[in-house]
Prior knowledge:
The chain has 769 residues and is an alpha+beta fold. 30% of the residues lie in helices and 27% in strands. Helix 4 crosses helix 11, helix 5 packs antiparallel against helix 6 and helix 5 packs across helix 7.
Amino acid sequence: MTEKRIRVEKQIGNHTLSFETGQLAKQAAGSVLVQYGETVVLVATASSDPRPGLDFFPLTCDYRERLAAAGKFPGGFLKREGRPSTKEILSSRLMDRPIRPLWPNGFRDEVQVQAFVIASDLQNDGDVLAMNGAAAALLVSELPFQGPIASVRVGKVDGEMVAFPTNADLEESELDMIVSGSTEQVAMIEGFAQEMPEDEMMAAIQFAHSVIRDVIELQEELYAKVNPTKKEFIAPEDDGLLQRLTDNYYEDFKAAQQTAGKQDRADAVSALRDRAKSDVIPDPKADDAVCEKRFKSVWHDLEENVVRDLIYAGTRPDGRDAESLRSIYCETDLLPRVHGSALFQRGETQSLVTVALGTSRDEQRVDGLMDEYSKKFMLDYNFPPFSVGECRPIRGPGRREIGHGCLAERSVAPVLPAADDFPYTIRVISDILESNGSSSMASVCGATLALMASGVPITNPVAGISVGLVRKSPDDWVLLTDILGTEDHFGDMDFKIAGTQNGITGIQLDLKVTGINEDIIRATLKQSRDARIEILRKMLTTISRPRREISATAPRLLRTKIAADKIGALIGPGGKNIRGIQETTGAVIEVDDDGTVLIASTSKDAAEEALRSVEACTATVQIGKIYDGTVSSIKEFGAFVEILPGRDGLCHISELSSGYISSIDNVVNVGDAMKVLVIDVDEHDRVKLSRRRALEELGEEDPMAAAAEADGGGEDRERGGGDRDDDRPRRRRGGGGGGGGGGGGRGGRGGGGGGGRRDGGGGGGRNRD
């Protein structure tokens, strides 16, 4: 590799795309610095000699985001990056898929391609830059890479196609798609849309391909300036073993491959392989014996030839024609207690899907190079080894499981209800219990069934299907609907398309060849739509629409909005109020900064009780309104009554009852419930209450008046004063002082001679005008 610094650049989209080499990572086989906007990605590649006996191409692509690129520190105790995030794993897969077919047949050198995001403007994603950097680094290296190949992300904002859209653009875009290809063919697609019709999707792919040609021109300019010396790869000489096996076992192999049933077919092929192996290697210890690994590799090549020849002749392994679906079985509500469940089976591919509904506390927090955000919808895909009858180490989810889960998740997400309409956090789990082709699309179908069964009001059902390809030449090819695992393995293409009756929501193209033309893409879109509509019909015969009610075991979510200045009143000092409501009702209450209150409980009654408490706690006292209050404290002059959580008012002794009350302690106790009317709120926000007026408005009798009479208050008034026969303290009421019985008005409890009631003097009766 040259040591001088070489840079090429070109305006593409809204920014300049540049490739630079010669300064950094000079000991790598090839390295390129890619920049778009202010996002910079360093990509370097290296290789080593092949390991003996290796029968596959060991290519490893790794994408990492350095958080310092955006001026951030990793969270947690360890302040350095560790295991790759989901975003990094998905980006690594995107790097791998376009470049993997572009190597000579038989090349077994170990190749690594590493990409590091070392600067980020938080608007231009580094993933597609890493894809272009990987292709450019391999192109200027000495490795026998059969490029160039380029990639572009496209969006559709306000009806216009956008190349290399920013994150802000994607927030408004109805399409997020990455396309890779050469100048003539498309090599990889990964995209998600808002139910985009097939003709619009085709137009988007064509637009992407036009941009790809511009990026390839830039790569070719870099290649011409670097002018690397390429290492020549010489394929191993043909030892004639493939022809020997073909001559002796081809017809038997064709018969075995047409055995019905995946397991029976595998058993028939295995028996034939054992027979051929014993014929070809009668004595493994002989000096001229064929190596067992060599036999295995050549037998695989023979199987590929047989399967492809059968398909091209019109005979698929399970006997279907090219456009037929396998038998489909759907069922919902298989499992108790879960919030939703469904089984989707297509042929020998089976997905058991369960749904869990939660609150905002269950949202997935995602922290990385970009701004932290939370996910309200998650779809997890699991592929246990028993699903294909194998034993393998049981570990956490691998790259394939993460990739398939993301594809299914983003294919279903466009039909989910808005968070304002359905505030639940949704988790969908797809367990693949049997697999023979296109389990990710089975997960999409099963997820739709389970969501409808759980009462999630999706806008449209989603189904998905995979279409394969066997191609002899650019103009001589056949498409296969609903491919088997064998057809996927030995075919040229796995084109997964998911969507509704209205259009596409998810699309993913993987190839084993260098690319396909637009005719194949257009035909695949049409054939997949026909199959998708048929699958949707069968799904809707099982459950035609989302259930009106969610599962009885799912949490009940109620939502209300309070004024932002009432949040403190709801929470209370040290969280007293909100904690009290939660402890009393058993509900969980979450409060957002904008005043949105979300209440969750497994009991509908408990959720509604909590909602009433929240509304009461944050309500504003209204003059003239009657409240159900509770006596919180008693004074000589009246009772303080709590009418709202944390808010009380004074009910003066004169407003407690229409009857005379000689002692408030005799008729009111702390904790007593009473109805009170708000008669005033003064300038100091003090609330004045009246029990007497509340009962008058409601037309209810006043038991307190009867209690006061029974207590002897009326007898005192009739006696006109005199000595009391007990030691209870006397209270002064109104007019007091001497004079005959004339006290005026409600406040004047007139007293007769002497010093009034307090002094034990005579009293004249009570005058109520």
